[in-house]
Design brief:
The chain has 520 residues and is of the alpha/beta class. Helix content is 46%, strand content 12%. The strands form four sheets. A six-stranded parallel sheet has the order 1-3-2-4-5-6, sandwiched between helices. Strands 8-9-12-7-13 form a five-stranded parallel sheet. A hairpin with an 8-residue loop joins strand 10 and strand 11.
C-alpha cells in the first residue's frame, strides 16, 4: 500500500510535513461502506509505487466540488457515483471537472448503465468511462489505472508542447521555427535591418512576407516611425497614384487635400505587397521616388520630400514579368540589392509543430477556448500535408478547428483539422477483397439468439464479453489500418486498453510487408 494514500473531504493534500504526491484521484460515493471498500481496493493494488497517488474522498457533491476547486492542478482522475446528495449530482460534478480540471480523466460509477451508454457519455464530453455497480475489484483497478495512464499520456504531450514552445526560435515576430531555412531567414533579416537600403521580399502567397517586413522595420533604426502596408493589387488602377502620393483639392471632381501612403510612412517603412501587380506607370513614379526621395501629389505643382524606406514583396517571377513588359527592369535592379526569399512551409516542415502550437495558443486566447493541443495523428497529418497555402493555410486550418471544436480540455485530431490522416488506411480497408475473413458482431434479435446459444453451451458472460471485445477490436484495427490511436478512438477506449487486449487475446500485428501503419 506504499504507493497510495487516502485523504478525506477535509484534507487539502498529504499530511503535514510529507511531500504532496504528484497526482491525486478523487473518489466520490455517498455510501461510506462502499467508499471505504473502493479506497482499500485502490490502495491494495498500489497504482503507482514510484511516484505515489493520493486518493481523496467525498460523500456528497458539495464536498467533492470543494475538493475539485482546491486540488484542480493535480487531479488526474475523478471517479464519482451518479446518484448522490447534491447539488451537484455525478453528472453535474463531472461537468464542473471539465471546466475546472480539464486534463483529469472522468469516470462515472452507476447502477443505471442502461440509461446512459458509453458512446453517449463520451460524445457529451463530460465522461470518459462508465463503471457499472457490481464491478469486480480488478475491474475497478483496471479502469482507474487506464484513466491514470491516459492522464499521464496527456501530460506527456502537454509537456512536449511546452518544450517546443521553450525551444522554438522567435526572433521574427509571428514567424516561428528553428529550421535551417528559418535560421537563414533570420540572419538575412537581421542583416538588412541594420542598413537603410530598400528591400525586395520574394515568396509564395501565405509565406509571411508582411511579417518579415514588419520584423525588418522593428529591428531597424526606423522602429519608432510608422509601418504602413498596402496591397498594390487591391487598389483600382485609377486610384492608385492618389493613394500612393496624395491629392490636392481641384485635381479632379471631388478631390480634396489628402496625404498619401508615402507621406504617411515618413520616417518609417512603406510595405508594398504584390508590387508586380502595380501598373507600369506607377512603377515609374515609384522608381523616381526611390532614386530621389521626392514625389508629386496628384494635382500639385511642387514636389514634396519624404524619408521612407520601402520594403516591396512579390509572389511571382518578376524577371519573367520584365520580359513580358509588365515590370520595369530598373525598378527590379533598384530593389534587388537587398533581396530575401521567404521559404515555403513545405521546405521547413519540421517547423510545423512549433508553428501549430504557437497559433493554437493565440487562438485559445482570441476565442476564450481551452483546447489542449494536437494528438499524435493530427501532428503526423500536419507533417504529411503539402500546405500549398503555406503558413496562412495552416493558421486558418487551426482557426477553423478551434472554432468548431465542441469541447475544451481535449486535443485536436486529424479529423478536426480536416486533413483525413486515416483516409489512406480507410481506403485500403474498403478496397480489401471481400473474401478476407473478418469477424462480425450481430445486432438486434440476432444478438439475443447468439447470446442464448452461447449460454446454452455453458459459457458465462465474461467469456461472451471477451468474444465481443475480440471481434470489435479486430474490426477497429483492420478498418484503421492498425493505427492504434484511431482504433482506440473508434472503440471509445484507451490505448493501454488495446495493448492489454492484444496481449490477452494473443492477437498479432501483421508484418510491415502487409501494409501496417503502426502508431503507438
Amino acid at each position: 500500500m506504499s504507493g497510495v494514500s487516502a485523504s478525506g473531504a477535509g484534507v487539502a493534500g498529504g499530511s503535514g510535513g510529507t511531500e504532496v504526491p504528484r497526482d491525486a484521484i478523487l473518489v466520490v460515493e455517498d455510501n461510506r461502506g462502499q467508499l471505504d471498500a473502493m479506497v482499500f481496493t485502490l490502495a491494495d493494488h498500489d497504482l503507482d509505487a514510484e511516484h505515489g497517488v493520493e486518493v481523496l474522498t467525498a460523500t456528497s457533491g458539495r464536498d467533492a466540488l470543494a475538493i475539485l476547486e482546491r486540488e484542480r492542478e493535480r487531479l488526474a482522475v475523478v471517479l464519482t457515483d451518479l446518484k448522490m446528495p447534491g447539488p451537484p449530482d455525478g453528472i453535474g460534478l463531472l461537468s464542473e471537472a471539465v471546466r475546472l480540471a480539464p486534463r483529469a480523466r472522468r469516470i462515472l460509477v452507476t447502477a443505471y448503465a442502461g440509461e446512459l451508454t458509453l458512446a453517449d457519455a463520451v460524445n457529451a464530453g463530460r465522461i470518459n468511462r462508465l463503471l457499472e455497480k457490481g464491478y469486480r475489484a480488478d475491474e475497478l483497478v483496471r479502469t482507474v489505472r487506464e484513466a491514470l495512464d491516459e492522464h499521464r499520456a496527456l501530460q506527456a504531450v502537454i509537456h512536449e508542447n511546452e518544450r517546443l514552445e521553450r525551444e522554438r526560435v522567435r526572433t521574427i515576430d509571428g514567424i516561428v521555427g528553428a529550421s535551417a531555412e528559418i535560421r537563414r531567414l533570420r540572419d538575412e533579416t537581421a542583416r538588412v535591418s541594420r542598413v537603410g537600403t530598400h528591400v525586395l521580399l520574394l515568396g509564395e502567397t501565405g509565406t509571411g512576407k508582411e511579417l518579415v517586413a514588419r520584423a525588418i522595420h522593428d529591428a531597424s533604426p526606423r522602429a519608432g516611425g510608422p509601418f504602413v502596408a498596402v496591397n498594390c493589387a487591391a487598389i483600382p488602377e485609377s486610384l492608385l497614384e492618389g493613394e500612393f502620393f496624395g491629392t490636392r483639392r481641384g485635381a479632379f471632381s471631388g478631390a480634396v487635400d489628402r496625404a498619401g501612403l508615402v507621406e504617411a510612412a515618413a520616417s518609417g517603412t512603406l510595405f508594398l505587397d504584390e508590387i508586380g501587380k502595380a501598373p507600369v506607370a506607377i512603377q515609374a513614379k515609384l522608381l523616381r521616388f526611390l532614386d530621389t526621395g521626392r514625389f508629386l501629389p496628384v494635382g500639385a505643382r511642387e514636389e514634396k520630400r519624404a524619408d521612407v524606406r520601402v520594403v516591396a514583396a512579390a509572389n511571382e517571377d518578376l524577371e519573367a514579368a520584365i520580359e513580358d513588359g509588365r515590370f520595369l527592369r530598373d525598378l527590379f535592379y533598384r530593389l534587388r540589392g537587398s533581396r530575401i526569399r521567404i521559404p515555403r512551409l513545405a521546405d521547413r516542415i519540421d517547423d510545423v509543430p512549433a508553428i501549430a502550437r504557437h497559433w493554437l495558443d493565440r487562438m485559445n486566447r482570441e476565442y476564450s477556448r481551452a483546447v489542449l493541443g494536437f494528438d499524435d495523428q493530427a501532428m503526423a497529418a500536419m507533417r504529411a500535408h503539402s500546405w500549398p497555402g503555406n503558413v496562412r493555410e495552416l493558421v486558418e486550418t487551426i482557426r477553423d478547428a478551434v472554432v468548431r471544436k465542441a469541447d475544451d480540455g481535449t486535443f485536436l485530431s486529424a479529423a478536426d483539422l480536416g486533413l483525413g490522416a486515416c483516409g489512406t488506411a480507410r481506403a485500403r480497408a474498403q478496397a480489401e477483397p471481400a473474401t478476407e475473413e473478418r469477424p462480425t458482431v450481430p445486432s438486434g434479435p440476432s444478438l439475443e439468439v447468439a447470446v442464448a446459444a452461447e449460454l446454452a453451451r455453458g459459457r458465462d458472460l465474461n467469456q461472451i464479453r471477451a468474444d465481443v471485445e475480440r471481434a470489435a477490436l479486430s474490426v477497429a484495427l483492420i478498418e484503421s489500418g492498425w493505427v492504434i490511436e484511431t482504433a482506440a478512438r473508434r472503440l471509445g477506449v484507451s490505448r493501454p486498453w488495446i495493448y492489454d487486449r492484444l496481449e490477452r487475446f494473443e492477437m498479432q500485428r501483421p508484418d510491415a510487408d502487409g501494409g501496417v501503419h503502426e502508431r503507438v
